[in-house]
Amino acid sequence: MSELFDLEAVRQKLAALPTETYQASDTVLAEGSTTGDVLVLKAGAVEVVKDGVRLGKITEPGAVFGELSALLGEPHTADVRALERTTFHVGEAASFLRTDANIALYVATIMARRIVDSNRALLKVKKQLEAGEPRRAIGGVLDAIIQGLS
What CATH number corresponds to the domain at position 95? Predict the structure, then answer.
């Protein structure tokens, strides 16, 4: 699949950003807070927690956090906690997203992938409900949807 953004240019931009490192159990982003930053996972692992429910574990370098808050001008919608020593590239949201088309397209692509994956999973749940499958099976798919959104 051909990307709309130049991945090498994105990597160079990320490498030029300051980094922040968190230790295991540190809160990286707190639900309800507003940081004005977008964080891109460089190395490590985090969990996303909403209302005490773990939505997912993220370990993939390049994963983006804080972009919804930045784009919508709203507080963060979940807690992000380090599960081990974890390092992020940190960009001030307004300049990070506005001044570089490659970065904006990179973030948009990640968000679009989340939506596509969630739509597929929702369709699967709809089909499972229509087929009368057990709640346990449907619950597994719902967990996958939630993790994909985080």
Answer: 2.60.120.10
